[in-house]
Amino acid sequence: MTDAPTTPRFGEQGGVLTYGSYLRIPQLLDQQHPASDPEAHDELLFITIHQVYELWFKLLLHELDDARDQMLKGDAYVPRVRLTRCHAILRVLVGQVDVIDTMTPQDFLQFRNRLAPASGFQSVQFREVEFISGMKDPGYLKRFRGLTDDERARLTARLEEPSLWDGFLTAMRHAGFKTDTEDQRVQAYRTIAGDRAAHGQLWDLAEALVDHDQLLSMWRARHVLMAERQIGTKPGTGGSAGGAYLRSRVELRCYPELWELRSML
Ligand code: HEM
Ligand SMILES: N[C@@H](CC(=O)c1ccccc1NC=O)C(=O)O
Fold this sequence. Notes:
Elements: H1 19-23, H2 25-28, H3 43-72, H4 77-95, H5 97-100, H6 105-112, H7 124-133, H8 139-143, H9 149-160, H10 164-174, H11 182-194, H12 196-231, H13 243-248, H14 256-264
Helix pairs in contact: 3-4, 3-7, 3-10, 4-12, 7-9, 10-12, 11-12
Bound molecules: protoporphyrin IX containing FE and N'-Formylkynurenine.
Keywords: Dioxygenase, Heme, Iron, Metal-binding, Oxidoreductase, Tryptophan catabolism
Function: Heme-dependent dioxygenase that catalyzes the oxidative cleavage of the L-tryptophan (L-Trp) pyrrole ring and converts L-tryptophan to N-formyl-L-kynurenine. Catalyzes the oxidative cleavage of the indole moiety.
Pfam families: Trp_dioxygenase
């Protein structure tokens, strides 16, 4: 008599898939190549944190793309679910600055001179996040140095495609609101805000966009502090004024009309 197992015996199916092969751990762990020689101790930290950011940016774009696409179909529920995940990711992105803050400016200087003219300016995925969020600035395409053809095509497509804001206005139109003029939109926001029993999903979606906007601003604010803590008022390796440039972007808003609504309620 054979004992029929009541629970699957994981790991005994004879398959070839392993943790390392599925997640491509050998390839992942082979991507950290410090530029300093002799190697500065903190450069591994610097490379790791940026790579982790880029992985999260990739997932953020995956979620934001779907949020926008579902809004363009008139849905308000799934986009809110997607945005809630994005908020959790963005909080992680703000929080992990703690790790880089453990680096001293002296230790950063051990390898900083090897970094110029590279800088976060050249993060294509960060700019994609800004563009899909509604902060489309074609000027960045011209300022970018060293873009590959594929990266330029991705950014150009992001400038041309609908943003989250375009998606939100479509979802409002599906619910019967007119959104062509600013007056019509303000009237719509006020109706939605004033009757949440009737328009709860749209209200929650609008609030999720405000959360998204707020978290992007919190990342920028935290990034200014991270940068000034390391380089004070020195210019950046990317050729900007450094902290002063970064500070000028903290107050930017993706959805100014949702912030202005606050003063009208
Ligand atoms: C030692 C830490 C860091 C310093 C001192 C620093 C400094 C700077 C400076 C000065 C700029 C302006 C461009 C320039 O002229 O160089 C910049 C831009 C940028 N950095 Fe960093 N950064 C640091 C870490 C990070 C990290 C961990 C990320 C994560 C991806 C990041 C992402 C960016 C992005 C996306 C921009 C473009 C911002 C924009 O144009 O609005 N930075 N950084
Ligand atoms: N812009 C920074 C250097 C820096 O942080 C950096 C350099 C190369 C690649 C990514 C970077 N991260 C953010 O700007 C600086 O001026 O010190």
